[in-house]
Amino acid sequence: MATVSLKKLFKRYGATPVVHGIDLEVRDREFIALVGPSGCGKSTTLRMIAGLEEISEGLIEIGGRVVNDLPPRSRNISMVFQSYALYPHMTVRENMGFSLKIAGAPKEEMDRRVAEASAILGLDHLLERRPSQLSGGQRQRVAMGRAIVRDPDVFLFDEPLSNLDAKLRTQMRTEIKKLHAKVNSTVIYVTHDQVEAMTLSDRIVIMREGHIEQVGTPDEVFRRPETRFVAGFIGSPPMNLTDATVDDGALAFAGGTRLPLPGHFKANVQAGRKVVFGLRPDDVYPTGHGIHSGEVSDVHEIELPVTVTEPLGNETLVFAEFDGKDWVSRMLNPKPLKAGEKVKLSLDLSQAHLFDAETGKSLRA
Ligand code: ADP
């Protein structure tokens, strides 16, 4: 059982805290992504799990065993880095088998494990090449092969796709997902890319400034963000977020616009409260061009001037000015719109989010 538990985990560099008491339970065979902006402590957390970084305070358990004082090689983990860290003078086969050779594994076992990993990753035809004769994607696949041959309890990935171009990154993402289905071990995957985290993971851990903002399935963190930060971080294009004040059953915006207070909030927001109103681009659409095929319950229509449009073929992103800010809406079956033109937008208020302006916490009941 390769569960991973982090208990009140702290990391300080001198007096500077960079990880502030993280608690996390990773389940056996779960694919979990640590995601957050640069500098939020993802890599440091991963490196503490790997044993590459000392723990300032707290406990790390792998498979129920405290590993705080174990060196990396005794933790039965494999790590895949952003830089592939392959040995340039060795062939693919030698690179993949190297850790087993060092561990003194018999040649037959080494050959068998390399062959297995190579078959899983489609590397058979590249085994005699050296890293310089491989493309970036192939090198990353070899780095993953090297991790697989060790048959670890836990795979740790540190931004493994960051060095690849956009197209290759998407391809490798699919490969990593297939790989997890095949090898079926616990994975902890660090990325700053929320799309990567969403598409790959069973659960996502959203980190900010050394602490965890929210842990949830991709669906949970998208539909039920617990904080304004998560709401703004998850989703592309990002959620529209605008300051407002609660006033007599309505939301009053600084520029004078008013919207009815969505029904699912009325009970727990009192008049005068400063809030942040949020609506995803999917839930604000030029009337008649929305993604919701069924009935929507709480639609409010407003007319706004278009500032710019971004045609994407199947849809167009329409930016329109709401209360002095650009809101982005998604237009399906697009028709041309000109800048300055007024457009009728349907707001599906049943999907609206409200956050406390001060604490950033969701005000959903
Ligand atoms: P992330 O992976 O989320 O981008 P890191 O875990 O790499 O973030 O870094 C978290 C914070 O710790 C950053 O502010 C970084 O500057 C700081 N940090 C990382 N390594 C060191 C170090 N060796 N000494 C001092 N500060 C460090």
Give a short overview:
The chain has 365 residues and is of the alpha+beta class. The protein has helices spanning 42-50, 92-102, 107-121, 136-149, 166-183, 194-200, 218-223, 228-233, and strands at 4-13, 16-26, 31-35, 57-62, 65-66, 77-80, 154-158, 186-191, 203-208, 211-216, 240-247, 250-252, 258-260, 274-279, 284-286, 299-311, 315-322, 325-332, 342-348, 353-356.
Q: If you average the pLDDT, what whole number results?
A: 92
The portion of residues forming beta strands comes to 25-35%
With strands numbered from the N-terminus, the spatial order across the biggest sheet is 6-7-8-3-9-10
* Sheet having the most strands: 6 strands, mixed
Q: Count every helix, treating DSSP H or I runs of 4 or more residues as helices.
A: 8
Gyration radius, rounded: 24 Å
CATH superfamily of the largest domain: P-loop containing nucleotide triphosphate hydrolases
CATH topology of the largest domain: Rossmann fold
> What count of structural domains?
2
Low-confidence parts lasting 5 or more residues at pLDDT below 50? none
Give the N-to-C terminal Cα separation: 37 Å
**How many beta-strand segments?**
20
Q: What structural class results from the helix and strand content?
A: alpha+beta
> Which bin fits the share of residues in helices?
10-25%
Shape: elongated
CATH architecture name of the largest domain = 3-Layer(aba) Sandwich
The CATH class assignment of the largest domain is Alpha Beta
Give the names of the bound compounds.
adenosine-5'-diphosphate
- N-to-C order of helices and strands: EEEHEEEHHHEHEHEEHHEEEEEEEEEE
